[in-house]
Amino acid sequence: MLTRRHFIATGAAFFSVPIAAQAQESKWDAWDRQVTPAGYDPATTNPWGLHPRLLPQRVEHKEGLTPGDIHVDAVARYLYHIGNDGTAMRYGVAIAKGSLYEPGTYTIRRKAKWPGWRPTDNMIAREPERYAKYADGQDPGPRNPLGARAFYLFVGNRDTYLRIHGTPLPQSIGGRASSGCVRMVMAHIIDLYPNVATGVTAYLYAPEERITATS
Predict the structure, then answer these.
(1) What is the mean pLDDT of residues 5-9?
(2) What SS3 class is residue 37?
(3) Count of structural domains within the chain
(4) How far is residue 201's CA from residue 28's CA, in Å, rounded to a whole number?
């Protein structure tokens, strides 16, 4: 016989997961609003003081590129997301410092909203005074180094621990600042995120190479 007490107890089990998911999404939405300026327009909004060329723009791309793929120009500090109409969305980025930048061809096998973060063992060994305190990880949120969104770069099935991600340090955009990843303004990667599918290719070009595109 099902009693009211039994219904309440089992009902909590049935509904706890969706309620928890809704609470998480509500938190994400609140954080999205926190990092997105009021009246945000990608092409003109610039409270970060970026050079105007680093704001999102739609540009023409050279022939032969696969729609959906991502190309990172390490010289100009641009990320291009290739469209299917001969154009691409271009965003300003920051790349890694010195030899920490790893050009190559990668597959985006995972994408995440408001991810947690843990420095790699190499990062901790290289700068223990900066990273050792985060050895157990850092919770998601606007101050988390991976920011609002992240794309995870793999070679085959191997996670390279390289990411394309938002950053709480937008003043770094246009420079060389990270420990290996490609950084974007959080509001910009929030816009980009739903348009990038898992399984696409991300090309990170060497600092000596330049991608041809016209605005």
Answers:
(1) 43
(2) coil
(3) 1
(4) 27
Sign of CA dihedral 168, 175, 54, 159: negative
Q: Are 72 and 195 in contact (CB under 8 A)?
A: no
Q: Is 6 a known active-site residue?
A: no
Look at residue 5 and give its three-state secondary structure: helix
**21: number of Cβ within 10 Å:** 10
The catalytic position among 61, 71, 81, 181 is: 181
Per-residue pLDDT tens for 101-144? 999 999 999 999 999 877 777 777 877 776 665 666 668 899 99
Q: Above 60 in pLDDT, residue 4?
A: no
Domain with residue 188: its CATH number is 2.40.440.10
Distance CA 37, CA 35 (A): 6
165 is catalytic: yes
Question: Phi and psi (nearest 5°) for 148?
Answer: -80, -30
- Residues 177-207 as b/e (b if ≥16 CB within 10 A, e otherwise) read bbbbbbbbbbbbbbbbbeebeeebebbbbee
Q: Which of 61, 71, 81, 165 is catalytic?
A: 165
Domain enclosing residue 183, as ranges: 52-214
Q: Please indicate, yes or no, if residue 4 is contained in any of the structural domains.
A: no
DSSP 128-160: HHHHGGGTT-B-SSTTSTTTTEEEEEEETTEEE
Residue 18 is encoded by which pair of tokens? 């969706």
> What's the pLDDT at 214?
45
